[in-house]
Design goal:
It is a single chain. The protein has 759 residues and is α/β, with parallel strands linked by helices. The chain is 26% helix and 15% strand. It is built from 21 helices and 27 strands. The strands form 5 sheets. A 10-stranded mixed β-sheet has the order 16-15-14-13-19-10-20-21-11-22. A 9-stranded mixed β-sheet has the order 1-2-3-5-4-6-7-8-9, with helices on both faces. It has a 4-stranded antiparallel β-sheet with strand order 24-25-26-27, covered by helices on one side. The protein is elongated and about 90 Å long. The protein starts with a helix and ends in a 28-residue tail after the last helix.
Length: 759
């Protein structure tokens, strides 16, 4: 606590508690003065009082006119349960140290002089959230629970740093630098570790205290620390005086239950997992299923290290990236949700673009960190950043970027304790990033086409594309060896940059295959995976580590298929199409899981699965229950991996092309809602339309794995069924069991969906 806060608390404790001006309360009560501030208590009638210390609800905000008659229904139920209600007027303190001192003075008075319990339930309405949470995070052992009615949890959202700063004796820039000391959503760890239960009700149309920046973000951050916060969202409601806010049976029951809970009860949110395996997820880049010889033995170029990994675990022969291109799939891996439910309806996250993962969305590392895991990311991010603008704010214009400042919105903002990487290997800035900083000085520019696929832009001196993959191999190997000295479990996410462009094999691999630089790069990719596994073995952690190897989409045509095929390297042997497509070659990827002692070696699964399933599988493995609004498209593969179930994890799965075209899979049937590939391979959509190809394609993948014979006219009933399935899971906001969830912006239709706008 700051010197200002400490001195104010001391003054408050010495204050004389005298009668104050009468407060117009919704039920008979007492008004009095604490440190010159008006406080109040409303106590239950004598026949309702309980033995022992008085249980109480701490109400905020208590401005001059509050509480009002709107709270009467709720207050009556508290009083009938033998619970008092109390509060203190602090004005527009915005949760400042001065306001916290007044709150502490009320708490001390009630608990020491009036015999109230030391664990009230905090009832935070609107700005009262900011007031109460800033006190609560500094006194977690004095909180029985938090019940919120559209509460403010985030200073940057309301009132904003410019307005709040004077209350803190700072300017906006200084307050921004000290958010970790003052902002409730950045200070939740102690509350979570104390097991404090939280329940908020909030409207999705609240413009004053937006849901995503407040209750939803708090829930996500709380889960990342192992706490359980529930948020009940009321569709279409704003920041208003609707009766539903003040006559919520669930919120009132929650407050009563926790206000009456004995102080000595154990924490309500114990962080206990039945197993805590280390988790290593390796995501190759632009490497379709036929690139791995364990899945395609006809190819001349072998991948012995990945093959060995497959022999040691379970291989999924019908696994799919959720998109035909990279950043959408990365979104799904880290959120367990199809990317088209986000703002990204087609394409990828662009250069200098803002983050794709919503602040309030629970991510895989946040979930695992909440179970006591250390989390790290080493590799390609490609999910956007908040690039700092010189003079303040953020920008997507490279000429305005302050490369020496912290870069927000990346891995550190979404649950990773540490990050090292170059973000997108063929995009600027060409420099390493560590955590939220760009390393080195940006003093030069990379030329367009310096290597295949490389874009022009800011760079450090002497950036070496050929060193990138080797550096990742070194970093991952070092991390794994060092973990043998640590007791806490780890989650390491390794999104590799290869064999994506730039096709840049290290000098030690150039010419190794005697086929092409791409073949050399693919061989190096396999070897780096082997180095990671060797480091895991050397560390002694292999038997305690759950390993997943997979890829973000199919093989890119930058590989030069024809050149490779002339040399017997058959990367499109079994499936039609390539990267970006709705055809199988665009998204059917290798997927291997190794977990010694839990997953039988050398086994295979032929059920359709997706990379979104990693989220629920990891949650299941560590005993974590995902909230209703997380992992909406993620199914746990653990029963399959352990041999406990032979049932398909999904009823249907959805594919998505770079151009935003959908395909849906159900058993052997696959329906493409496009005329051509939907992506880059022929026929592209314009050519397919010109040639008069039908707008629907239906394939029996058991009989026709290369999608050559369109059966849509022969089986209109299958087409109708699959179209209905697709529409249902889009409009339900999820493809797994559970309550309906909103897509981005609550949208049920957007351009690109294969039916007319219902509105």
């Amino acid at each position: 606590m700051s010197k200002l806060s400490t001195s104010l608390v001391a003054l408050a404790l010495l204050a004389t508690h005298t009668p104050a001006q009468t407060k117009n309360l919704p039920r008979p009560g007492e008004s009095f003065s604490i440190d010159g501030r008006t406080a109040f208590v409303i106590e239950p009638k004598p026949d309702r009082r309980r033995d022992g210390p008085m249980p109480w609800i701490w109400y905020a905000p208590t401005l001059k006119s509050l509480p009002s008659s709107a709270e009467t229904w709720m207050f009556d139920r508290f009083l009938a349960a033998g619970i008092a209600i109390a509060g203190i007027d602090v004005g527009e303190s915005y949760g400042s140290p001065e306001g916290r001192a007044h709150f502490q003075a009320l708490f001390t008075h009630l608990t020491t002089e009036r015999g109230y319990r030391r664990k009230p339930v905090l009832l935070a309405r609107s700005r009262g959230g900011l007031m109460l949470y800033t006190w609560a995070v500094e006194h977690p052992d004095c909180v029985g629970g938090v019940a919120g009615i559209y509460p403010v949890c985030n200073l940057t959202s309301y009132p904003g740093l410019q307005r709040a700063a004077p209350a803190y004796g700072l300017d906006a820039a200084q307050l921004e630098e000290r958010l970790a000391d003052h902002n409730p959503v950045d200070r939740l760890a102690a509350l979570a570790h104390a097991g404090v239960p939280i329940l908020h009700i909030h409207g999705d149309n609240d413009r004053v205290v937006p849901l995503d920046e407040n209750s939803a973000r708090l829930r996500t951050r709380y889960a990342a620390h192992g706490g359980r916060a529930e948020v009940r969202v009321h569709p279409g409601r704003g920041h208003d005086m609707w009766d539903g806010w003040f006559q919520s049976e669930e919120l009132t029951a929650f407050a009563i239950e926790n206000a009456l809970r004995p102080d000595g009860d154990e924490a309500r949110n114990p962080i206990i997992a039945p197993e805590t395996p280390n988790i290593l997820v390796i995501l190759a880049d632009d490497m379709g299923i036929d690139a791995v010889s364990a899945f395609n033995p006809t190819t001349r170029l072998k991948t012995p290290e990945i093959d060995r990994l497959a022999a040691q675990g379970m291989s999924f022969t019908d696994a799919h990236s959720t998109s035909g291109v990279c950043s959408p799939t990365r979104y799904s891996v880290l959120t367990g949700r199809y990317n088209w439910r986000s703002r990204l309806k087609r394409g990828i996250v662009g250069k200098w673009e803002r983050p794709l993962i919503e602040d309030a969305r629970l991510t895989l590392p946040e979930m695992l960190r909440g179970r006591g895991y250390d989390t790290a990311c080493i590799g390609k991010w490609h999910l956007g950043w908040h690039w700092p603008k010189r003079g303040g704010g953020s920008t997507n214009k490279p000429a305005e970027i302050d490369f020496a400042a912290r870069v927000g919105g990346g891995p550190i903002a979404h649950g990773f304790d540490s990050y090292f990487g170059d973000d997108v290997p063929n995009w600027p800035p060409y420099a390493w990033r560590e955590d939220d900083r760009v390393l080195g000085s940006i003093t030069t520019r990379m030329k367009q086409g310096a290597m295949v696929g490389v874009s022009a832009g800011p760079s450090v001196e002497n950036w070496d594309f050929r060193a990138v993959l080797e550096e990742y191999g070194d970093r991952v190997s070092t991390y794994l060896r060092e973990r043998s000295k640590q007791e806490r479990p780890f989650f390491l996410y390794v999104p590799m940059p290869s064999p994506h462009t730039p096709i840049a094999p290290h000098e030690s691999y150039r010419g190794k295959t005697e086929i092409s630089e791409y073949a050399d790069f693919l061989a190096q990719t396999d070897a780096v995976v082997g180095r990671m596994m060797h480091a895991l073995d050397e560390s002694g952690l292999a038997n305690d580590t759950f390993v997943i190897f997979t890829c973000d989409n199919g093989t890119s045509p930058k590989c030069n298929f024809a050149e490779l095929e002339d040399a017997g390297v058959l990367l499109r042997e079994n499936w039609r199409g390539w990267k970006a497509d709705a055809y199988e070659g665009g998204h059917r990827v290798p997927f291997v899981v190794r977990w010694p002692g839990r997953v039988d070696a050398g086994t295979r699964c032929g059920h359709p699965v997706t990379l979104a399933d990693i989220m629920a599988t990891c949650a299941d493995a560590v005993g974590s229950e995902l909230p209703d609004d997380a992992g909406e498209d993620s199914a746990s593969l653990l029963p399959t991996l352990r041999g406990d179930s032979d049932a398909p994890p999904h009823r249907v799965i959805v594919h998505h092309s770079s151009n935003g075209h959908f395909a849906i899979r159900k058993g052997k049937w696959k329906l493409l809602l496009c005329r051509g590939s939907g992506g880059w391979s022929p026929p592209r959509e314009a050519a397919a339309r010109k040639d008069g190809l039908p707008a629907l394609q239906l394939y029996d993948l058991d009989a026709d794995p290369k999608e050559a014979t369109n059966l849509h006219e022969k089986h209109p009933e299958i087409v109708a069924e699959l179209r209905a399935d697709l529409r249902s899971l889009i409009e339900r906001g999820r493809s797994t069991p559970g309550p309906v969830q909103p897509n981005h912006g609550g949208r049920l239709w957007w351009k690109g969906l294969p039916w007319k706008n219902p509105n």
